[in-house]
Amino acid sequence: MSDDPAVAALLSEYPPEAQQLTLRVRKLLLRIIPDVHEHVYPGWRIISFRMGDGHKHQICWLAPQRFGVNIGFEQGTELPDPNGLLTGNAKQARNVHIRSARDVDVPKIAALVAAAIELHRDRC
Length: 124
What we know:
Residues 19-117 form the YdhG-like domain. The protein is built from 3 helices and 6 strands.
């Protein structure tokens, strides 16, 4: 389990496989987002990853699911997605659904995160 009590508490509601997958993707995001700030929102059941304080600095979030984890991008409609990973029909947000360790394609996920970081830097 996670060494962060807030993350551990959030993940305790999910099956062990979903916990491990979420922790794997979390570790990746903590490694690739520069100066990352992590915040757990228990009511929303997400882990937010930001470059700075406050919601406007959010790069992405993790939403654990019973059968995997979603990586969410608030401005997902504005991100390049040549690999077709993003799904959803919200006005702006898009998600990457990860159902197994096979779905953790580090270069493709890193490319989306890099694009979200660049979009953030352009706006802040």
